[in-house]
């Protein structure tokens, strides 16, 4: 299956829009806590973790709180600023940087784990991003992509939004965003598996959960 390139949507996440997004996603941290627990169980204490497109940094802060050495890279300068401020307020050392997922300004084999949550569907070069995840991972390292799944029902999305602790107006705006924007850019299982197969990883493990999915990819350990 050929996955068509997309126009990148994340550049609009600047200024007031980025601030609005940060406020609303920060109202309910439970999904970041759940993701952090899933991620930390796969690496040793003190492991080096890269979060690609961390946005306001809520997941990165959970990972740092768990004792991991965290770097976050986002294309939005506003999010880099907001995430850095959030880390400073929390007293946590997280290295937030600005950059493009398909051209990571980071060295080879620098991380034990790469995680990307709720952003992969926006990447204009998804295959390039997966290949960059592979490049910066150490042999035996894991990349985890968590995102919205195309085909998620509007009823399930409404239930998810109802648990986000939003005001009625923001809840309505969020449901509309899911319906008219996010679902249209989300990937189906076959598309993600095709991307994984074409990437340097060669394959990935796809798992559905609620309205989303997790794609897990492993850079094989090298043999002597």
Q: What is shown here, in short?
A:
This protein has a single domain (10-151, 188-218), classed as Rossmann fold, CATH 3.40.50.150. The protein has helices at residues 15-25, 30-40, 58-65, 77-90, 126-136, 154-162, 168-185, 189-198, and strands spanning 48-52, 69-74, 95-98, 111-117, 137-148, 205-209, 212-218.
Write up this protein.
The chain has 224 residues and is an alpha/beta fold. It has a single domain (10-151, 188-218), classed as Vaccinia Virus protein VP39 (Rossmann fold), CATH 3.40.50. Helices cover 41% and strands 21% of the residues. The chain contains eight helices and seven strands, in the order H-H-E-H-E-H-E-E-H-E-H-H-H-E-E. A seven-stranded mixed beta sheet has the order 3-2-1-4-5-7-6, sandwiched between helices. A hairpin with a 2-residue loop joins strand 6 (205-209) and strand 7 (212-218). The termini are far apart.
What descriptive keywords fit this protein?
single chain; 224 residues; alpha/beta; Rossmann fold; 7-stranded mixed sheet; 8 helices; 7 strands; 41% helix; 21% strand; globular
């Amino acid at each position: 299956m050929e996955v068509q390139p997309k126009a990148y949507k994340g550049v609009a996440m600047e200024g007031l829009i980025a601030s609005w997004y940060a406020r609303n996603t920060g109202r309910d941290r439970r999904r970041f806590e759940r993701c952090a627990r899933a991620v930390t169980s796969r690496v040793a204490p003190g492991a080096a973790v890269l979060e690609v497109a961390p946005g306001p940094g809520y997941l990165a802060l959970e990972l740092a709180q768990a004792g991991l050495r965290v770097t976050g890279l986002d294309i939005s300068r506003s999010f880099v600023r907001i995430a850095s401020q959030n880390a400073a307020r929390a007293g946590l050392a997280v290295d937030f940087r600005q950059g493009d997922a398909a051209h990571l300004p980071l060295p080879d084999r620098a991380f034990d784990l790469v995680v990307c949550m709720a952003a992969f569907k926006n990447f204009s070069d998804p295959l390039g991003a997966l290949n960059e995840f592979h490049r910066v991972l150490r042999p035996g390292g894991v990349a985890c992509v968590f995102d919205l799944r195309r085909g998620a029902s509007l009823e399930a999305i409404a239930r998810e939004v109802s648990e986000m602790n939003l005001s009625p107006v923001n809840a309505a705006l969020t449901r509309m965003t899911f319906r008219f924007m996010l679902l249209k850019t989300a990937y189906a299982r076959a598309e993600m598996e095709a991307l994984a197969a074409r990437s340097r990883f060669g394959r990935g493990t796809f798992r559905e959960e609620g309205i989303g999915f997790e794609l897990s990819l492993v850079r094989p350990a090298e043999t002597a």
